[in-house]
Design brief:
Length: 752
């Protein structure tokens, strides 16, 4: 392997490019033809047919630059050809806008070309024909469609990345506000996807171009400084080059030595991270890449470099033994060069380098060279993440929520932890044992109760570090905790937790809806028909759900429980449907339903503390067992329980009396309930301890404490407590014990 000159490799993206082709050349198939040498003649003919079809479809259309629109598909296909994508991908790249911009149908593409090419084009097409309430919703749904198409066929995202790369390269003619919006979108979505798929070369260029259009003044200033520094440090680079060449020659080790210059954005990011005020403080804008023939030679070359220059402590990473999740492999080390300049080195083989720069695109490059085994490295490395997209989609119906989960998983940094059986797992930086549990299996995550890291018990929210050995402890009756959403870091964990909570809320809303409809039917003098599928009443339920606009009986009951449908209105329609089948109201039941209090076992909503998200205790009055209560069926909020003397509840009742239903406390309760109290205290030493001791003496718990900011400066102060009590009798005991406390002048329960 011959050594190459270092200085020839120090170029910024966009510099030292060949003269651009003329407009006529760029708009013709001849601009693409030189890049298709790896295809057969028959395949080139198919690509030419796709070009002709795209050229005819886009005839008369212009880009913002004034060029014929066809120059863009040709350029996108050219980038895909550099990645050695197959003939179907190149055809899709040429026609990727014909459905969206030219009105061509997918059926027409299938008939004229083939189903696979048509599927690729369809996966790249936005959902402009559908109606969305906001532009953000439309964008999120389009991303969702594209990412799911990508999970089925990776070529979709490769073509899309090529499309976005060319658009970013030619964005100079666009209005500044549009350019900023597209740059932000590219930085948030497309650049991280490129990084996640191992397309590091594309990732760096997309980041740099996004920075150029989002912060044009900062980009221009740093670009000028980098160009100046390149000339000033030429002698230093030549000296380092000579010393490296000499060291490897003495070790009789054949390597390729490449110099690389940090991108403008990476320099800007480093300045921000380290708080550097000027470019002159950045000392390591140059790095070096060493390519060897075999993996073992990477370690030998590392030893040569460590003998030449002193390594910096803690700045060595072995991604050959522990590859990144996207398949990246290299040795990283930072050495102190001449004049105390830090030098970054990456050591890898030619095959590792191809995967490092092209990521999953290396699959097609290797395939074209006949190295099928090596070709699958990048593909297999991303299989788990691509599968997680499908898993998240199955549990997330909201497009914005889906996009949020995907963004979480587009992490640039990873940690590597081990299972007790020594299996290595990659997780995002900041991941917790809950993330680890869901990465193993959703059942492990759902039933997780505790965790041990390196043999010691840790909280479930503890951050994991590389090298940790993690063991998850599960229990059959355990279930996900909503509080986990505040600290989990992976999209998979977040979507699984939310999915479980939504299913739980659906079931609770369904039970509540059935009780409320039964109660409303008593007013009509009728009993609720059987909900069994094989019962004759099933036809009535089907007609009722269709009339109400619900997907089915189950969804109708959920809608009633969640407050999206009014039980009284549904009950009147149900009564008419039952009357049409000859079922008449019972006179006695009708009288009892309208003028007497309903028996507690026949449909009234009973509270025992086990209710979930579908039943909420109002925060304005904080009802506790023993209080007289009633329930307000909020529109889509479920059942909200107020005390009967709550002023907020009274105003709601006057304005919307139809949405109130009967609510009762169960005889046996499953938990304690929060209530608010206020104390007027004499300020002094140990007052808080006295209050806490009194509450504990009354066998209650303090869940929250607050005081006014100026309390320490006053002789008296008000303290607000939230305390957990069993019922009103228990609350009375707590107030009685507090009144006997010397520091307490007055104490009362807070009510609106």
């Amino acid at each position: 392997m011959a050594q190459r000159s270092l200085t020839a490799w120090f170029t910024l993206p966009g510099l030292r490019q060949a003269a651009p082709p003329t407009t006529a050349e760029a708009a013709s198939f001849d601009a693409l033809l030189p890049k298709l040498g790896y295809l057969s003649k028959a395949e080139v003919k198919r690509v030419r047919e796709a070009y002709k079809f795209a050229d005819e479809s886009h005839l008369g259309q212009k880009r913002a630059t004034g060029e014929p629109y066809i120059t863009h598909p040709i350029a996108v296909a050219g980038i895909c050809a550099e990645w050695r994508l197959d003939v179907q991908a190149l055809m899709a790249a040429l026609m990727h806008d014909v459905v969206e911009d030219c009105g061509v149908s997918k059926a027409e593409l299938i008939e004229r070309f083939d189903a696979t090419t048509a599927d690729l084009v369809d996966g790249l097409t936005k959902l402009d024909k559908l109606q969305f309430s906001t532009k953000e919703e439309s964008q999120a749904e389009s991303f969702r469609k594209m990412l799911l198409a990508m999970a089925r066929d990776l070529r979709v995202i490769l073509i899309k990345l090529a499309d976005r790369l060319h658009n970013m390269r030619t964005m100079g003619a666009m209005a500044p506000h549009k350019a900023r919006r597209i740059a932000r979108e590219t930085f948030d979505i497309y650049a991280p996807i490129a990084h996640r798929l191992g397309l590091n070369q594309t990732f760096r260029e997309l980041e740099d171009l996004s920075f150029q259009y989002f912060h044009p003044w900062r980009y221009a200033a740093l670009s000028k400084a980098v160009a100046k520094a390149r000339g000033n440090r030429r002698d230093l680079v030549s000296r380092i080059e000579g010393e490296i060449r000499s060291a490897f020659a003495k070790a009789n080790l054949r390597v390729e030595v490449h110099g690389r210059e940090k991108t403008v954005y990476s320099i800007y990011k480093k300045m921000r991270e380290k708080g550097l005020m000027s470019f002159a403080q950045v000392s390591d804008i140059f790095g070096f890449r060493i390519l060897t023939e075999e993996p073992l030679q990477c370690y030998t070359a590392l030893g040569v470099l460590h003998q030449l220059y002193k390594p910096q402590a803690g700045r060595f990473k072995d991604y050959i033994a522990n590859p990144k999740d996207n398949g990246y492999q290299s040795l990283h080390t930072t050495l102190m060069g001449p004049l105390g300049t830090p030098l970054e080195f990456q050591l890898r083989t030619e095959g590792m380098h191809q995967i490092a720069e092209q990521g999953v695109a290396a699959h097609w490059i290797y395939k074209s060279r006949g190295k099928q085994a090596s070709a699958l490295i990048a593909q297999q490395a991303n299989a788990r993440w691509l599968q997680s997209l499908i898993d998240i989609q199955d549990e997330t119906r909201d497009a914005n929520e889906f996009l949020e989960h995907v963004k979480i998983d587009l992490f640039p940094d990873a940690i590597y932890v081990f299972t007790p059986k020594s299996k290595i797992m990659a997780l995002p930086k900041g991941a917790t044992p809950v993330d680890f549990a869901y990465a193993i299996h959703s059942d492990v995550g759902d039933h997780c109760v505790a965790a041990q890291v390196n043999g010691e018990a840790v909280p479930l929210r503890a951050e994991l570090k590389s090298g940790d050995i993690v063991e998850v402890i599960t229990a059959p009756g355990a279930s996900p905790n909503p509080a986990w959403l505040s600290f989990v870091r992976t999209g998979r964990a977040r979507s699984k937790i939310r999915h479980y909570l939504k299913d739980l809320e659906q079931e609770e809303s369904r039970e509540l809806g059935e009780k409320m409809l039964a109660q409303a039917m008593r007013v009509e003098g009728l009993a609720l028909p059987s909900l069994e599928v094989d019962d004759p009443a099933a036809a009535i339920w089907h007609d009722l759900a269709a009339w109400a606009g619900s997907a089915g009986t189950e969804q109708l009951l959920v809608d009633i429980g969640a407050g999206r449908k009014i039980a009284a209105i549904i009950a009147k329609k149900l009564a008419r449907l039952m009357a049409a089948q000859g079922q008449k109201p019972d006179a006695l039941a009708l009288t009892l339903g309208r003028f007497a209090e309903a028996p507690p076992d026949q449909g009234s909503v009973t509270l025992d503390g086990s209710e979930g998200a579908s039943v909420q205790l109002a925060s304005c009055c904080r009802p506790i067992p023993g209080d007289e209560v009633r329930g307000y069926l909020g529109r889509g909020e479920g059942l909200i329980v107020h005390t009967c003397d709550c002023q907020v509840g009274r105003r709601l009742f006057q304005r919307d009396s139809e949405h109130w239903i009967q609510v009762e406390w169960a005889e046996e309760l499953t938990r304690s309930f929060e209530a608010g109290i206020t104390l007027l205290l004499t300020n002094g030493k140990g007052v808080l301890a006295q209050v806490a001791q009194a509450v504990a003496q009354a066998e209650a718990d303090i869940t929250h404490i607050s005081m006014t900011d100026d309390a320490p400066a006053r002789e008296t102060a008000e303290m607000n407590l939230l305390i957990a009590v069993r019922d009103r009798l228990h609350m009375a005991d707590v107030l009685r014990v507090l009144r006997r406390t010397p520091a307490v002048q007055r104490v009362w329960r807070v009510k609106p």
